[in-house]
Design goal:
Blueprint (H helix, E strand, L loop, with lengths): L13 H8 L4 E5 L6 H16 L6 E5 L2 H15 L8 E4 H12 L10 E3 L1 H14 L6 H13 L18 H21 L2 E3 H14 L9 E4 L7 H10 L6 E5 L14 H9 L4 E3 L3 E2 L4 H11 L11 E2 L8 E7 H18 L9 E5 L5 H10 L4 E4 L8 H14 L4 H7 L9 H13 L4 H9 L11 H27 L5 H12 L1 H8 L4 H24 L19 H11 L16 E5 L8 E6 L15 H12 L2 E12 L13 H4 L14 H11 L6 H6 L8 H4 L28 H6 L2
Parallel strand pairs: 1-7, 1-8, 2-3, 2-6, 4-5, 6-7, 9-10, 11-16, 12-14, 12-15, 13-14, 15-16
Bound molecules: adenosine-5'-triphosphate (ATP) and magnesium ion (MG).
Magnesium ion (MG) binds next to helix 2.
């Protein structure tokens, strides 16, 4: 047979091309990291729309992160042109589910204005329930338990739980969990909230009852399939129910969301449910130097139960990955800084801070790295679990927006009632919430009722508090809501205007000054950052945002959501969001990311600090194999240079908390280099080749920095470990000379 021609096929190898053009209804691509799975999936979308002729609005693509969705949309957009990518239903499972629920949720009894409870909201609600009902539960554990139940589609059933007996006190715990689950569900319902699990579960319900919502869908494509859970599998099946055309790509070795009920067995389930699946493997790794790939494979091959696949490097051997032991987390961070500078310096303008990632097992490890980068004047961005949206001042503004959007949200309302201070104590708020819950009212309606002088609501609040609430809070909120309603008649009140208006009404800057005398400026700057995020969001919606779901005959859609609703949903779903993430950052920055959020991405230079037992494998993890896969994911992000490191002492200045090298690495430690490469010209040329970049000449590199001989000793006169005082009294920065010539600006902005 002759292979059809299309420019999207040009950059592909044979196996990839076969996957892109396959006529099979179901296509499964199982292959290792860097083999081009995502690249192939994106190309297949373009192929299906542009060559096979599917309408963009009939194609669903699920990615694992918001960032991945954005990148994919951009690439597809470039290949398709005419903004056709906007019509494709492309996003994370959660965001796809949310869109369907926003459009059709009312057919299954959902209010049109639901809010999303993110993981932190859920945890807070559960903590409160446990306290109120005196349940002897650990809230995070209870949350995980509830989440597992929901993922399995199980309703709370406290009555069916076994009665506690003397013999089996654990049955009490079981009962408490069921009670907690029930309370939690009714709380969400009352407050018109859906948590992450609900988004999926309710969407499954919707698609089962009203299959016509997705009657237009021709095909469903899924990236990072190994991390889908049971409910997501069901959602995929239902989205594709009309034509049963599914393409999945994944890698069992990179399954790292078992703690969120992701199931590797969904892979085998797919092959069983869709027996005619065309299975295609991709065997070439286009991402990394051979030396990086070899060592990563040594690590993952320690798992004897794994599904074996071939993965061959296409690139040169490159330089050996580094494994470095340092005194403590502080010197470790200093070492990372010096290695970043060395690599960037020796590359002239070829490498910038954008090419560097520091990947951490947990967000709590970032402190030392942040402070070392900060001290060295190296700009960085944080991705994944670092919680811009959780700063107190940001959370307050968002909570007000949530209340404005949907006043029945008791959690948000309870949190802002006394912020800024209105003389309403925590006890009063708690009582009010309880009273509202008892009378099945929302807090807001209860207060409105009360303020109207309706004494059937017998709230116990002081006159002063009452005045503050009715005179200030309710009036202000009503004022803003009225403004919005008026505005929507003609044109909508802009999101940014709305936030501005809110901040003025709250006198928010003044509130910050009074409440946080030490760092109110930083906090106000954060609020400004939120405004600029809102601004970007609105601009993105106009530019590359998504079109409404296509109309389905006989099934009415809710009218288009307002921008505020979309913004709030975006904030709640963008757990992997970062500041300034819009592909047009002005200055290069190092990325600090959790390993989880780094999945699917790649960088020329990757550091993985804190590779010790307790950190990775993490002490609280129950699944050692998953921890190993996590390290494998981290290592395989690197294209050219990979550095692992760990501190001997966990705690600077103390010698009693010795660490030991991660057991995943200890057996292969001898295969690592002990220090970073010397960056000979030949290595730099290889790096340029892998990255397909121009390498500046030696003359150009050294011309930028006058009077500089370029021997290694000149560059790094003191080893960070030697700068550490042997008496263990702390870090002596005066002994760690940082050559002045390393002005980071010279290195990073050169080209
Ligand atoms: P992961 O498992 O980490 O998600 P992946 O299999 O999805 O990896 P991609 O991210 O799609 O891999 O590709 C890795 C790199 O290889 C990308 O930079 C991509 O552009 C490049 N690449 C993929 N296929 C080819 C090819 N046929 N020729 C050249 N480069 C390729
Ligand atoms: Mg990928």
């Amino acid at each position: 047979s002759t292979t059809p021609k299309h420019s999207i096929l040009d950059s592909l190898n044979n196996a990839q091309r076969r996957a892109v053009t396959s006529d099979a209804a179901t296509v499964a691509i199982l292959a290792g990291p860097g083999s081009g799975k995502t690249h192939t999936l994106t190309s297949r979308v373009v192929w299906l729309v542009d060559h096979v002729g599917y309408q963009p609005q009939d194609v669903v693509v699920a990615t694992f992160t918001v960032k991945a969705a954005r990148e994919m949309k951009e690439r597809i957009g470039k290949a398709l042109g005419n903004g056709r990518e906007k019509k494709i239903i492309l996003g994370t499972f959660h965001s796809i589910a949310r869109r369907y629920l926003a459009a059709y949720g009312r057919h299954i009894g959902l209010s049109e204005k639901f809010n999303i409870a993110d993981d932190n909201d859920s945890r807070a609600i559960i903590t409160r329930i446990c306290k109120r009902l005196q349940l002897g539960l650990d809230p995070p554990m209870a949350k995980a338990w509830i989440s597992k139940k929901k993922a399995k589609g199980m309703e709370p059933s406290p009555s069916s739980a076994p009665q506690p007996s003397k013999k089996q006190p654990t049955q009490q715990g079981q009962r408490d969990l069921e009670v907690c689950y029930q309370e939690y569900q009714s709380h969400l319902k009352r407050s018109n909230l859906l948590d992450y699990d609900d988004l999926l579960v309710r969407c499954v319900e919707l698609l089962r009852k009203f299959p016509s919502c997705v009657s237009n869908i021709q095909t469903v494509l899924i990236d990072e399939y190994q991390d889908t859970n049971g409910v997501q599998y069901e959602l995929m099946r239902l989205l594709a129910q009309k034509h049963q055309r599914i393409t999945i790509v994944g890698d069992p070795d990179q399954s790292i969301y078992g703690w969120r009920s992701a199931e590797i067995k969904n892979l085998w389930r797919l092959l069983r449910d869709y027996p005619k699946t065309d299975e295609i493997s991709l065997e070439e790794n286009y991402r990394s130097f051979q030396a990086i790939l070899d060592l990563s494979l040594l690590v993952i091959q320690q798992d004897k139960k794994r599904y074996q696949k071939v993965l061959k490097p296409v690139h040169d051997r490159g330089s050996r990955p580094v494994l470095r032991k340092l005194k403590n987390a502080h010197t470790e961070a200093e070492w990372i800084v010096s290695e970043i500078r060395r690599a960037l310096y020796m590359s002239g303008t070829m490498l910038t801070y954008n090419d560097v990632a520091i990947l951490l097992r947990s967000a709590s490890l970032s402190r030392h790295v942040e402070s070392a980068l900060g001290k060295a004047g190296i700009p960085y961005r944080m991705v994944g679990g670092f919680k811009f949206y959780e700063r107190a001042e940001i959370k307050t503004v968002l909570d007000y927006l949530r209340v404005i959007h949907q006043p029945d949200n008791n959690d948000a309302f309870g949190r802002v009632m006394n912020v800024p201070k209105r003389g309403i104590g925590d006890g009063t708020i708690k009582n009010l919430i309880e009273e509202a819950e008892k009378s099945s009212l929302s807090l807001y309606s209860l207060l409105v009722k009360h303020c109207r002088g309706d004494r059937t609501a017998k709230t116990k609040i002081t006159k002063h508090a009452e005045q503050k609430i009715s005179g200030e809070l309710i009036r202000m909120l009503n004022g803003i809501r009225k403004k919005m309603e008026e505005a929507t008649e003609g044109k909508s009140l802009g999101l940014v205007d709305l936030i501005d208006h809110l901040l003025t009404a709250l006198n928010f800057q003044n509130y910050l000054q009074v409440t946080y005398p030490d760092d109110h400026e930083q906090r106000w700057a954060n609020v400004q950052e939120l405004i600029s995020l809102a601004n970007d969001f609105v601009r993105d919606l106009d530019r590359s945002g998504e079109d409404a779901l296509p109309e389905i005959e006989g099934l009415e859609q809710s009218k288009e959501e307002d921008v505020l609703a979309q913004f709030l949903a975006n904030v709640s779903l963008a757990s992997d969001a970062q500041k300034g993430e819009d592909g047009q950052e002005s200055k290069p920055m190092v990325t600090i990311s959790t390993i989880h959020a780094a999945k699917g991405l790649e960088w020329p230079i990757v550091f993985i600090p804190a590779v010790y037992n307790g950190s990775i494998p993490h002490m609280r993890s129950e699944d050692g194999d998953e921890e190993r896969r996590l390290l494998y994911v981290a290592m395989t992000r690197a294209q050219a240079l990979l550095y692992l490191s760990y501190p001997v002492y966990n705690n600077p200045g103390s010698s009693d908390t010795r660490t030991e090298l991660s057991s995943f690495v200890s057996s292969v430690a001898s295969s690592f280099a002990k220090k970073g490469p010397n960056f000979e010209r030949s290595l730099m040329r290889h790096i340029a080749k892998v990255l397909q970049r121009e390498l500046p000449s030696e003359k150009e590199i050294f011309a930028g920095i006058p009077n500089m001989s370029h021997t290694e000793d000149d560059l790094f006169p003191v080893d960070p470990d030697k700068a550490y005082k042997e008496d263990g009294q702390g870090f002596d920065s005066s002994r760690f000379k940082r050559p002045k010539l390393y002005n980071p600006v010279v290195i990073s902005t050169g080209g």
